[in-house]
Amino acid sequence: MKARIHSVESCGTVDGPGIRFVIFLQGCSLRCHYCHNPDTWNVRGGHVVDAGELIKEMEGYLPYMKASSGGVTLSGGEPLLQPDFVLDFFRRCKQLGVHTALDTNGFAQPKNIADILQVTDLVLLDIKHIDEAKHRELTAQTNRHTLAFARQLDELGVPVWIRHVLVPDYTTDEADLARLGEFIGSLSNVQKVEVLPYHKMGEYKWKELGLENVLVDTMPPSEEQVARAYELLTAHLTETSTAS
Predict the structure, then answer these.
(1) Which whole number is the average pLDDT over 182-210?
(2) What is the spatial order of strands in the sheet that 99-104 belongs to?
(3) Angle between helices 51-59 and 83-95 (to 10 degrees)
(4) N- or C-end of the chain: fewer Cβ atoms within 10 A?
(5) How far apart are CA 160 and CA 209, in angstroms?
């Protein structure tokens, strides 16, 4: 099985627990204003790699991953746009006893999602916005698929980390954050909530690709805004959940 990938991070520490081998797959259906990797949007971009080659490369880092309770993360772009590869790669990882994490926006609805989730230990679910209209403005797509996917993961008992990018004037409204917090609190499988502050490190890519950057004058949120967002997003979590 082959896939189009953007890049590989051999010792990632932010996309799941422990030290992780992170593969960024090519292609995404969303067009988030704040995306720091717009070069991953094109499904025909990147370069083609065989799953076996990636497994062989990953195996060199197994001691570090196992010592830190880490594993493998498939990210993007959006990995579920290449679902057959995700399934094949995660099955190979499970045969090696490697923890698997899927970093997704939940928009894609592949036919083999049930099979994929059977070999997925953790889902990092990025909920862009709880409000449908504001989600469309921010991403050019509906949020209905993402919220439905969150419910599906809850019903199946798949562990989830919820991620929310905090963008001043777009995702910092307290009423929206409180509403998203209520939604998160209605799920029984949330292990962690992460507030990811908007940053400007990918702005040069927008310029290089000739894309209009509507956030050129937007600055990252303050520490106070991040703390307040975290407070609202975790207000309804049970005591058994963890968050940071």
Answers:
(1) 95
(2) 47-50, 2-12, 20-25, 71-75, 99-104, 122-126, 160-166, 190-197
(3) 40
(4) C
(5) 33
The count of other CB atoms within 10 Å of the CB of residue 220 is 15
State the amino acid at position 147 in one-letter form: L
Mean predicted confidence (pLDDT) in 215-220: 94
**Residues 6+ away with beta carbon under 8 Å from 121:** 71, 99, 100, 101, 159
End-to-end CA distance of the chain: 36
Q: Is the peptide bond before 27 cis (omega within 30 degrees of 0)?
A: no
- In the chain, % of residues over pLDDT 70: 98
Give the span between the Cα atoms of 24 and 6, in whole angstroms: 5
Give the model confidence (pLDDT) of 83-121 as tens digits: 999 999 999 999 999 999 999 999 999 999 999 999 999
Nearest to 117 by CA among 79, 144, 143, 145: 79
Say if residues 101 and 74 touch (Cβ distance below 8 Å): yes
To which H or E segment does residue 124 belong? strand 122-126
- Distance CA(154)–CA(58), nearest Å, equals 30
- Predicted confidence at residue 113, as pLDDT, reads 97
Does the CA dihedral 49-211-130-167 come out positive or negative? Answer: positive
pLDDT at 242 over 80: no
Whole-structure pTM value? 0.94
Q: Are 4 and 45 spatial neighbours (Cβ–Cβ below 8 Å)?
A: yes
